[in-house]
């Protein structure tokens, strides 16, 4: 199966909202929720994508010719590539009838593990979503990162107990999902969390804790104060607050402020190996990619996921070679320009 065939098959499977576009830039599905679109005007997802396109690569091939090494170690776990599948949930609401959240995760988690990366998994109002995700992660030797929403305390503790038993690599909270339109005024309740509340949550679990949805230096510093091991620079794909800057725009200042004290992940409009290289050059340790993994899985199941990871990996290797970086650790800020 070729990647183009995966894309063509996906268009028949993703329902009426997602268009499985060749370039997923947020334009065809703007302001479409339910669906994969962004909130309000729909510019958030478009801005994320465009912010990566504005960054240029500095080519330098006057270098010693060596093998390319894309391996990274995060939380004492080795990965073949600095790529993670982003947490996606409410599959039937947003992407049609083909897969439930549980069925999606049952394919995604082992597919990512077999491709040398790992998946973040989503959460939902149905308790079975987290139960299914943690069961699948445990069955894959903990190779996944369950992402919990900022529920009320009792709901969080129940879900964190399941996560603890999964022996997952880490646990994440997409704290920005407090702004999702379809979560407001629902049960269980979800909302913003203070530093003190986060401290209590983080102390309750042994796995490294990642706070997803950080878009400012101030937010990154508060995440560090709360005891997080990592952050995801993310505006939830533009789905929670119209008018946010693109994630690429804020990454350099966040990196400058917190240095290496936290692992920095980033998502939002990252669509190619070149984009991944740019993110690493600007200070990220790894990237999360969301909608393209949905398309790949809906178009080719596990094989589709592998084809996407292989494509991104080859693009990253080619960019590294052409910019004079033969190891992920050799990628530096001066290899890109704004």
TrEMBL record:
Reactions accelerated catalytically: (S)-lactate + O2 = pyruvate + H2O2
Highest taxon of source: Bacteria
InterPro entries the record matches: Aldolase_TIM (IPR013785), Alpha-hydoxy_acid_DH_FMN (IPR012133), FMN-dep_DH (IPR000262), FMN_HAD (IPR037396)
Keyword list, A-Z: Flavoprotein, FMN, Oxidoreductase
Cited Pfam families: FMN_dh (PF01070)
Domain FMN hydroxy acid dehydrogenase, residue spans: 37-338
Cofactor: FMN
Family according to the record: Belongs to the FMN-dependent alpha-hydroxy acid dehydrogenase family.
Protein name as annotated: L-lactate oxidase
Organism lineage string: Bacteria, Bacillati, Bacillota, Clostridia, Lachnospirales
